[in-house]
């Protein structure tokens, strides 16, 4: 496959690598609903879902009419924190909260209108489990969200020495994947941070001096990014600067010769006039 074909194929691959559904202001994060019509305990099954930092996320309860609901309970277990418990009784409209301190997590409207929760501005501290349990006249229902907060990485591409380039995906969550065009001798390192983000650094070297431009592609859950670099730009700049200095030197030399000739002629005429 030629270079153009490889480039097109890789670009298509990166485009279709990851398709993710995010919780938004008007759409619930998708989850399977578990139901039970007996008194035996419900099996807790959760599916990982994603929300990007800085966005708004809507977490939904099972699709059960509130007129048929006796009470509902939200249990929120954030990483490294005691569980927060929010309960609501439909008959008395009574709301109770235990260990709930994050005011960024609120009812989407009011519990009398909707049992859903809303995270107004998602941040890294909202990683965790969100369980909605509803008790109705026709059974018990639950919906469990394992929420993973994603962070888009900052992408940089810089030139090193001896036909080397460094591409970094800084402080992303989860870790990004880096690809190069054309292929080179590449080494990738990861640096985890205390807040759960990861920096990925890929250093590539090209033995062939004919490689003039390189492309770094970063694949991530929050979206793909790419950057390009003129690998031999520094050599070109030095060559151009050397040529300009040479031209300037030649011109100054010619100007000096011309001035010397004019001066010589001037003094010759002056001496002739004195005679």
Outline the structure in words:
The protein has helices spanning 3-16, 233-274, and strands at residues 34-36, 47-52, 57-59, 69-78, 84-89, 94-98, 105-107, 117-119, 128-136, 139-150, 154-159, 164-172, 177-181, 185-192, 198-205, 213-219, 225-230. The longest helix has 42 residues, at 233-274. The termini are far apart. The protein folds into three domains: 22-35 and 44-150, Immunoglobulins (Immunoglobulin-like, Sandwich), CATH 2.60.40; 151-231, Immunoglobulin-like (Sandwich); 232-262. A hairpin with a 4-residue loop joins strand 5 and strand 6 (94-98). The protein is an alpha+beta fold and 275 residues long. The strands form four sheets. Strands 1, 2, 4, 5, 6, 9 and 10 form a seven-stranded mixed sheet that branches.
Shape: elongated
Major sheet: 7 strands, mixed
Helix and strand run: HEEEEEEEEEEEEEEEEEH
CATH fold name of the largest domain: Immunoglobulin-like
Second-tier CATH architecture of the largest domain: Sandwich
Report the CATH superfamily of the largest domain: Immunoglobulins
Report helical residue fraction.
10-25%
The residue ranges in which pLDDT falls below 50 over 5 or more consecutive positions are 1-26, 31-41, 234-239
Sheet-strand content, in percent, reads 35-45%
């Amino acid at each position: 496959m030629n270079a153009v074909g490889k480039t097109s194929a890789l670009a298509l691959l990166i485009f279709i690598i990851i398709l993710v559904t995010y919780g938004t202001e008007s759409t619930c994060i998708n989850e399977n609903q578990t139901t039970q019509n007996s008194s035996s305990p419900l099996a807790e099954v959760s599916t990982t879902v994603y929300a990007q930092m800085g966005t708004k996320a809507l977490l939904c309860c099972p699709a059960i009419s509130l007129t048929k609901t006796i009470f509902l309970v939200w249990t929120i277990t954030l990483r490294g924190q005691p569980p927060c418990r929010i309960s609501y009784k439909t008959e008395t409209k009574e709301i109770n909260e235990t260990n709930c301190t994050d005011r960024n997590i609120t009812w989407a409207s009011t519990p009398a209108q909707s049992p859903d929760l809303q995270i107004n501005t998602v941040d890294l501290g909202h990683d965790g489990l969100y369980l909605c349990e509803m008790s109705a006249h026709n059974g018990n229902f639950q919906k469990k969200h394992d929420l993973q907060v994603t962070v888009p990485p900052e992408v940089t591409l810089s030139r090193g020495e001896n036909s080397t380039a460094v591409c970094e995906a800084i402080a992303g969550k989860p870790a990004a994947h880096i690809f190069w065009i054309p292929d080179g001798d590449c080494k990738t390192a990861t640096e985890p941070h205390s807040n759960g983000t990861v920096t990925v650094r890929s250093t590539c070297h090209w033995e062939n001096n004919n490689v003039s431009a390189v492309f770094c592609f970063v694949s991530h859950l929050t979206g793909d990014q790419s950057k390009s670099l003129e690998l031999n730009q520094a050599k070109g700049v030095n060559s151009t600067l050397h040529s300009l200095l040479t031209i300037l030197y030649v011109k100054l030399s010619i100007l000096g010769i011309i001035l010397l000739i004019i001066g010589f002629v001037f003094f010759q005429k002056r001496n002739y006039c004195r005679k």
